[in-house]
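Milestone 3.1: sequence recovery, worked example.
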């Protein structure tokens, strides 16, 4: 019976619900370790439960290496080591659930095949979390240090446990292996203030030294051993633990590392000032890097001259010159830590600026978001918002030092009438500190480290555990029964406190990027997002403790889970269950089992960077999918290729493509679709070397539609027709410059009937070839019907009969996503005019094109429910005016080379529209990664 029960539990865990996680393009929590590979890849691991591999040249993330995770701290990665032959990546941390049948996994070590990311073995012996890992220089041994107060030696060929070192009485935080003569020596250091040498072959302690503070960092160049910890100094020993030098430091050094030649030592920082220091072979300070603003404990060298430091306020990675301190690369996600929050009715506010005191940051607010209109605004505390009070009647809250580690806010004291009434002390298992706290009704709410957010009675008894954050909770605010919390995991969470219970989940979670892209999601994964926001959240899919995990971004399930109506109803009702029931009365609510409805996986079997003088290349790839592949989409520089024509041969799941290259830069994209979702994109960069310049000029086909005068005069606009006419004129002037020929079709006002617009779409569909460029410009009204379908209002549009009298967006989408040409969509369909009361949100329309997987470039006047503005004195809408200025008057030619590229035009439009409308209008441009920058126009 016990065996059957165990099997059922394991089966349940194997198919556990996918976990919604943030992915901002960078780490979202403390980076613990950094490794540099022989080909200069950068590997980082983090408290955000991911390992990421970066291209040091481009700063792009190449891939993730993932494993099983759980709630809260479960899955945080504290340690990793790469074998010298770069075959194995060893990973440790808080790697599994700390209860039930997984007790033996808490101190486990995962061994991955570094090249493939496959999890090949799990080592089990430690009984507490892993803090550090290291391979010997010859690759024969792996050493692990744990909070169970032991270090263990493993044989790398089989990963068999050879020995356990029990020298330490407290947590072992740093381990290394060196060779001294013929002897192989393990170095260990820990929270018992000891550094110790252990002979691996003789299995005995050689020497131990006790310092005056806890130790957590080690580095060695083979001749010297550097160690640091809770003291503001670095101790340098020889390999017999004879003290060579003590380096005084203004900061508390952390994360020590030697350069490849062993002549330079770099030290991160665990305190202020946030200086990253480099010392020479005499251990004299030669450089201090000062760009980080927070904890920076993972540091290293890319080469003998180039340093890497990781961490700071937003978990950034800097690559910089050792001497000049000049930054050559900064790698960072699009998010920022949330230091302060506020709430007032339907509007939440937050701040991303650190003030220096975590207990006085609640009022430092800079942006707000209305959860009904989904509009973001920037401000400087112009409006009062509810925060949280630390005084309530006879009761007062304050913090003081204490706990296991002496943190200054580990103890929360509750006073009644000025006398101590109760205390709440936090330790390593419940958040370490009280970062933020206050009263809610007859309860106390407190946020701490590692995502801990708890509610207590006035006597300090825990009554609710709010599970959602993965980083330190820095700010909380309450309005009625609504709680909002902000964290350094870069998210905000909204909680309904009407019913308190253990393991409460947030009713909504929010992320807003630095450039105001946003996504709001519910517990089941329904979401609302800006055009580019949904790619920042997705599903971490556990596949068992002995298998690597997968990550799938939410945009892959846009057709099913993009439900702004459900998100709005959750906010109103406080319940996802109620919201789904209400939403289902108007529109069917589809459910999807993410764990069994995975997208395909496209794997490249040939190089991703190719340099050749040939006119064509061959590319090999494979596709894995549990479901039949319904479509494979291949593009070259944004142009959709005929898959059947370029497939050279197929063998099992492997296929070989023959791609005819264009001149110079070529980007090939491969995606695959099954009935559930689209795969991640695989990109191949091919540089064609040629002695002869390609002087071919494409033909431009422009369909320009603008409606200012409607049959229903209440819909009339001012200048949409003039915008369309001007767009045709400006591109016709490009004939003989960028384009061999320019062919235009302009449809305005009474001529812009549904039939005529569809005829125009048929025209570009029939005329365009793979060597041409297509531009579709549309200006006028756009609206959504009751089912969320988007329509462009043609001249005869009737708001009560949209299907018969307006152009359904799917007609536009189907045309442009199936063209073999380079396609640019310029859309200005969000005018306010006299159409108040009608729902208008262009997001789903734009996303439908993005999710088609083709290389369409989209430039919109605004997105979401924002308005596009027009003024009679401008003669045009702000969007069109900016395009005309950028091309006709060469104002977008930033590099002054007489050619205006699509990225230059994007930059000019963004800045110019913002200036024209005083920041009220936000244009958005989507340029797929598969499309290299190219010239769209040429100045005089």
């Amino acid at each position: 019976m016990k065996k059957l029960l165990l099997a059922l539990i394991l089966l349940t865990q194997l198919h556990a619900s996918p976990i919604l996680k943030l992915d901002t393009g960078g780490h979202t929590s403390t980076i613990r370790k950094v490794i540099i590979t022989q080909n200069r890849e950068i590997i980082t691991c983090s408290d955000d439960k991911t390992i990421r591999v970066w291209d040091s040249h481009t700063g792009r993330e190449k891939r993730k290496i993932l494993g099983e995770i759980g709630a809260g701290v479960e899955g945080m990665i504290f340690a990793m080591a790469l074998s010298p032959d770069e075959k194995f990546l060893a990973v440790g941390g808080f790697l599994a659930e700390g209860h039930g049948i997984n007790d033996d996994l808490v101190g486990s070590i995962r061994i991955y095949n570094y090249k493939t990311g496959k999890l090949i073995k799990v080592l089990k012996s430690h009984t507490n979390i892993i803090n550090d890992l290291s391979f010997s220089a010859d690759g024969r041994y792996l050493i692990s240090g744990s909070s169970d107060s032991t270090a263990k030696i493993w044989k790398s060929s089989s990963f068999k446990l050879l020995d356990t070192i029990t020298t330490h009485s407290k947590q072992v935080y740093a381990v290394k292996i060196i060779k001294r003569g013929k002897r192989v020596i393990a170095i260990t250091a820990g929270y018992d203030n000891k550094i110790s040498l252990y002979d691996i072959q003789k299995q005995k302690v050689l020497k131990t030294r006790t310092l005056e503070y806890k130790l957590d960092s080690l580095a060695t160049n083979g001749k010297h051993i550097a160690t640091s910890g809770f003291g503001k100094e670095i101790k340098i020993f020889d390999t017999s633990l004879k003290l060579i030098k003590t380096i005084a430091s203004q900061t508390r050094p952390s994360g020590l590392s030697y350069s490849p030649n062993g002549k330079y030592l770099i030290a991160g920082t665990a305190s202020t000032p946030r200086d990253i220091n480099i010392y020479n072979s005499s251990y004299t300070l030669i450089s201090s890097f000062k760009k980080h603003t927070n904890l920076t404990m993972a540091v290293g060298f890319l080469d003998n001259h180039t340093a890497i430091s990781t961490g700071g306020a937003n978990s950034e990675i800097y690559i910089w010159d050792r001497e000049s301190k000049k930054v050559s690369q900064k790698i960072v996600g699009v998010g920022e830590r949330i230091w302060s929050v506020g709430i007032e009715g339907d509007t939440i506010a937050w701040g991303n600026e650190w003030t220096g005191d975590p207990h006085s940051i609640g009022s430092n607010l800079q942006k707000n978001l209305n959860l009904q209109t989904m509009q973001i605004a920037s401000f400087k505390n112009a409006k009062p918002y509810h925060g949280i009070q630390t005084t309530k009647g006879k009761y007062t809250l304050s913090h003081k030092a204490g706990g296991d580690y002496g943190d200054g806010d580990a103890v929360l004291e509750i006073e009644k009438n000025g006398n101590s009434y109760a205390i709440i002390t936090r330790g390593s298992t419940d958040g370490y500190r009280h970062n933020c706290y206050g009263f809610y009704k007859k309860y106390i709410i407190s946020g701490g480290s590692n995502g801990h957010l708890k509610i207590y009675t006035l006597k300090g008894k825990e009554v609710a555990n709010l599970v959602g954050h993965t980083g330190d909770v820095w700010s909380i605010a309450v309005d009625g029964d609504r709680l909002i919390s902000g964290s350094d995991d870069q998210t905000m969470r909204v909680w309904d406190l009407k019913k308190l219970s253990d393991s409460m989940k947030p009713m909504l979670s929010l992320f807003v990027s630095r450039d105001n892209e946003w996504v709001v999601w519910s517990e089941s994964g329904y979401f609302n997002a800006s055009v580019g926001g949904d790619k920042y959240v997705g599903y971490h899919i556990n596949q068992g403790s002995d298998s690597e995990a997968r990550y799938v971004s939410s945009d892959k399930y846009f057709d099913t889970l993009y439900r702004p109506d459900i998100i709005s109803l959750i906010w109103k009702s406080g319940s996802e269950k109620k919201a789904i029931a209400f939403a289902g009365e108007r529109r069917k609510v589809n459910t999807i089992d993410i764990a069994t409805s995975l997208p395909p996986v496209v794997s490249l079997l040939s190089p991703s960077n190719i340099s050749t003088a040939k006119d064509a290349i061959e590319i090999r790839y494979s596709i894995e999918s549990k479901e039949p592949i319904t479509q494979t989409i291949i593009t070259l520089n944004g142009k959709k290729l005929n898959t059947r024509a370029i497939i050279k041969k197929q063998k099992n799941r492997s296929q070989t493509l023959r791609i005819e290259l264009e001149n110079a830069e070529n980007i090939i994209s491969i995606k695959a679709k099954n009935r559930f979702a689209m795969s991640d994109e695989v990109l191949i960069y091919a540089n064609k070397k040629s002695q002869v310049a390609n002087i071919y000029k494409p033909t431009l086909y422009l369909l320009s539609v603008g409606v200012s005068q409607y049959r229903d005069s209440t819909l009339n606009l001012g200048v949409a027709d003039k915008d369309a006419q001007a767009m045709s004129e400006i591109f016709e002037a490009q004939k003989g410059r960028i384009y061999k020929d320019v062919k235009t079709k302009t449809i305005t006002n009474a001529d812009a009937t549904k039939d005529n617009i569809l005829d125009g779409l048929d025209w570009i569909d029939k005329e365009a070839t793979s060597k041409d460029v297509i531009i579709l410009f549309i200006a006028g009204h756009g609206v959504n019907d009751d089912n969320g379908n988007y329509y462009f209002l043609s001249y005869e549009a009737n708001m009560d009969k949209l299907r018969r009298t307006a152009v359904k967006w799917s007609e536009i989408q189907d045309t442009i996503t199936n063209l073999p040409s380079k396609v640019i969509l310029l859309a200005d369909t969000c005018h306010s005019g006299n159409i108040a009361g009608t729902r208008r949100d262009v997001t789903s329309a734009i996303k439908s094109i993005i999710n088609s997987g083709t290389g369409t470039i989209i430039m919109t006047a605004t997105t979401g429910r924002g308005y596009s503005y027009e003024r009679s004195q401008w003669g045009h809408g702000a969007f069109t005016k900016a395009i005309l200025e950028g091309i006709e008057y060469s104002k977008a030619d930033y590099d002054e080379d007489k050619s205006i590229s699509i990225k230059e035009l994007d930059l000019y439009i963004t800045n110019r529209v913002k200036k024209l409308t005083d920041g009220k209008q936000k244009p958005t441009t989507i340029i797929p990664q598969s499309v290299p920058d190219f010239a769209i126009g040429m100045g005089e």
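The longest strand covers residues 407-416. The first helix runs from residue 2 to 14.
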